[in-house]
Amino acid sequence: MAMIFQRKNLRLARTLIRHALGLGFYARPDITCYKERHGSDYGGWWLQPKLLNDDSIIYSVGVGTDISFDLSIIKNLGVSVHAFDPTPKSIDWLKKQEKPDRFVFHDIGVAHYDGFARFYAPKNAQHVSHSMISQDNVGDEAIEVRVCSLQTIMKELAHDRIDVLKIDIEGAEYSLIDQILEESIPVQQLLVEFHHRVIPDGVKMTKKTVQKMRESGYRIFAVSENGEEFSFVKLD
């Protein structure tokens, strides 16, 4: 336990140094609240469980090969999770996993529009995550996949809100969040990994997005030690 604590402190120290040098970004939580972390060290997220019940609507966008967060909240909070990922490795991996009925998988991408998108494969063949955005860790090889907007997905699933939206979409989070804010899509808790580390002008984009979210009534209640995973809640 002490070693884990030391590692987390070291990661936070590195993040704060990068932030001070303008090479990274870190923001302290805006509010203090009861929260729980669900999932593995790699794939876990902080959320506010007291805002959820068994009728809550959870979207998990970007699965990869880690559904520990999804399985934990299904088991411990009694919720259902709609998961989205169009990448072949993720789809193949999921087929081999034991999943509860409350885990509902959709093999489509989520974007700010309906149609098709080119997903660029990672340069490292051992990695899984593809990206709609050209960035440092993807190559020229790409696949074309179907993508849908949140509005279209919510309409097809007969959902009038999203209680928790988890986003890990390799740099495409900025345009998706812009749409959520501009069109007032009702999302209560938004858990997002910002990829400013690999996106051109990424630090500037993350700062701007966090500012816009705060102006729209969202408040940060948790931040990872590396300054990339943020948990927001919409305050009335």
Automatic annotation (TrEMBL):
Superkingdom, natural source: Bacteria
Sequence ranges assigned to domain Methyltransferase FkbM in this UniProt record: 78-220
Coiled coil: none
Cited Pfam families: Methyltransf_21 (PF05050)
Native organism taxonomy: Bacteria, Bacillati, Chloroflexota, Chloroflexia, Chloroflexales
The protein's name in its UniProt record: Methyltransferase FkbM domain-containing protein
NCBIfam families named among the record's database cross-references: fkbM_fam
